[in-house]
Amino acid sequence: MKRIGSLILLVFLTLALTACQESTNLKDGYYTAQANQFSHGWKEYVTIMVKGGVIVSVEYNAENPSGFIKSWDNSYMQAMLHKNGTYPNEYTRYYAAQLLEDQSETSIDALSGASSSSRSFQKLAAAVLEQAKRGDSSIVYVDTSE
To answer: N or C: which end of the chain has fewer CB within 10 A?
Structure first.
């Protein structure tokens, strides 16, 4: 019985160490992925900060040509909330929190009313994680069109 317990513990430790090694393949620094074109007047971006091989900060948002941030646009927020049931300040934080928690773009759940942004976020997150793996802090431009 002790042998089985030891074997289970060994397997668990091996899996835990493997998971740690996967997350530490990210190089420390700031990384940004940005949509390569404006969509409906906005250009989305994801910026992450990696420290100790782990994502410690995620910002997901969009800006218009003048640099105004989508989450700050109250009239847009009201219109989208009434039409879709969500708004940029809600869904951008929701998607960013998932990336921060899971450290991967593959497990992002779409929020009802913001599924198009979910697809864009996944593409941007995948690109920014690739930049972090290479340690390349230049902005990467991504085709987020459907």
So the answer is: N
